[in-house]
Amino acid sequence: MTPLPGLVSDIIRKASEELKVPVWCKIRILPTLKETIAFAVMLEASGCSLLAVHARQRERSHHSGSADWSTIRHLKKVLEIPVVANGNVQCLTDAQNCLKHTEADAVMSANGILANPKIFSGFGCRRQTKHKDNDEKSFEVNTIQHPMRESLVSAHCFGH
């Protein structure tokens, strides 16, 4: 299990007692399904009112391999709080497939939405590219059309 689960529980419990807003948590899956379920159940018991689950382990690169949606499905069956699925969502079809497979209450996207801000409108399905030239061109076009500080997005375009 993750280091210091007692400390995490204390933090979530105290936050949920003191704050006037719900406490939401986001986790990555742990090395085993049993550990992941135990950690998620602990979060719920401590006062977490919504759990977002990135379906990859921390040790794995967040850009490689498939997300483990089956773990999210198991969590959804065990938890009473809403569960948000995250991982391998690059377009609307991916989001729909994720929801169908996981039975999660919602889906979120990180890198997919950076590549395609209209991801959930069904506007194309741009898969991530490893080609730096394409990323640089996309970055240039997007910053011209939608000005913002380069530091806010450059890490996502040019590597972490």
Folded structure, characterized:
Strand 2 (48-57), helix 3 and strand 3 (83-86) form a beta-alpha-beta unit. Helix 1 (5-18) runs parallel beside helix 2 and helix 2 packs across helix 3 (69-78). This protein has two domains: 5-125, Aldolase class I (TIM Barrel, Alpha-Beta Barrel), CATH 3.20.20.70; 129-160. The protein has a four-stranded parallel beta sheet with strand order 1-2-3-4. It has helices at residues 5-18, 33-46, 69-78, 92-102, 111-115, 132-145, 150-158, and strands spanning 23-29, 48-57, 83-86, 106-108. It starts with a helix and ends with a helix. With 160 residues, it is of the alpha/beta class. This is DUS-like FMN-binding domain-containing protein.
The CATH homologous superfamily of the largest domain is named Aldolase class I
CATH class of the largest domain: Alpha Beta
Outline the biggest β-sheet.
4 strands, parallel
Q: How big a fraction of the residues is strand?
A: 15-25%
Oligomer: single chain
N-to-C span: 26 Å
Number of domains: 2
Q: In sequence order, what are the helices and strands, one letter per element?
A: HEHEHEHEHHH
How confident overall, as mean pLDDT?
Answer: 83
Stated plainly, the CATH topology of the largest domain is called TIM Barrel
Strand segment count: 4
Rounded to the nearest angstrom, the radius of gyration is 17 Å
**Helical residue percent band:** 40-55%
CATH architecture tag of the largest domain:
Alpha-Beta Barrel
Q: Uncertain spans, ≥5 residues at pLDDT below 50?
A: 128-132
